[in-house]
Amino acid sequence: MTVASRAARIVIVDDQGLFRDGLSLLLDLDDRVEVVGRAADGDEAVRIVSEVHPDVVLMDLKMPGSDGVEATGRIVREAPEVRVIILTTFESDGYVLQALRAGASGYLLKDSTPEAIVLSIQAVMAGERVIAGAVATRVLGMLSGATSGKEFYDGLTPREVEILRLIATGMANKEIAYRLQISDKTVRNHVSNMYEKLQVFDRAQATLYAVRKGLVDL
């Protein structure tokens, strides 16, 4: 029996039991998929994948212990024949990029319909990549080299992105200067340039931008 003619064997990974069990029940109603395992975190996911050898893993992104990005990387390295689809509430460009770089074949949002999830499972089994949301074109452009990091972060240089991330964690300019071994004046110049490029006016707005881009969590 070919892959295309049999039910796809899947593992569902999510730290929320209600969502995990509910999705399992919904997908079990579809003859095109068979749920062969469920896990509550990344470490358990890696273990179950090694035991049941599924075709596809539906992976939550934010979980205690090993998160979805880390678990995806481990699964892809240890079982390259297994496809991973991130299934999450996070729509940020940065999260998509991290997941795809870790080896995920798809990135879907949790408000996707069961039919859309099943079709995505079939697509990644056929070697395709599936991404939901308006970020798809820009993120795939970055992965292929068609879009630069500066375009992704609205013209910010790597150093400015680094400083933005530190600002978003709550660091003051002097702390950033000490961490990066640069002068306070240099930090102030970078911050001023960054504000101008992003059209923001304070650290709170900069932090919101960093969260939206997946540079930091609130």
Question: Which tags fit this structure?
Answer:
single chain; 218 residues; alpha/beta; Rossmann fold; Arc Repressor Mutant, subunit A; 6-stranded parallel sheet; 6 strands
Q: What's the overall geometry?
A: elongated
- CATH topology group of the largest domain: Rossmann fold
Largest sheet: 6 strands, parallel
Quaternary structure state of the chains depicted: single chain
**CATH architecture tag of the largest domain:** 3-Layer(aba) Sandwich
Unreliable segments of 5+ consecutive residues: none
Helix content: 40-55%
Order of helices and strands: EHEHEHEHEHEHHHHHH
Backbone CA Rg? 20 Å
CATH homologous superfamily heading of the largest domain: Response regulator
Nearest-integer average pLDDT: 85
* Span between termini: 48 Å
